[in-house]
Amino acid sequence: MKGKCGISEFRRDNEVRCSEHDSYEIIQNDFNDAMFYKTISTKENTPYKVTCMVKTEGVEPQESNNAIGAQIATNNSTERSVAISGTTDWQKIEFIFNSKNRKEVNVGFRLGGNAGFCKGKAWFSDFTIEEGVPETNSNWKFACFIFTSTDVTINDKKINLSATSKDIEDINNTINRFTKTCRVLSNGKMSAECQTYTKDTPITSLSYDKQFGYYVAPEDVENQIKEEINNNNFDHIFIITKLGDEAHPDDIEVNDWIGLRSHGLLWYRLFKHQASKRAKKLCV
Amino acid sequence: MYKYDSRINIFPEEVLLHEFLHSLERTSTEYGYQIPALHDYEKYGYKNEPLIGEKKWYTDYMNKKINGNEGLPEEVYKLKPAKNYNFRVSNPITNVFVEPSNILEEIQELCRTVIRNVKSMFEEPTTSSN
Question: Which of A106, A124, A127, A208 is in Cβ range 3.0-4.6 Å of B97 for a Cys bridge?
Answer without folding.
Answer: A127
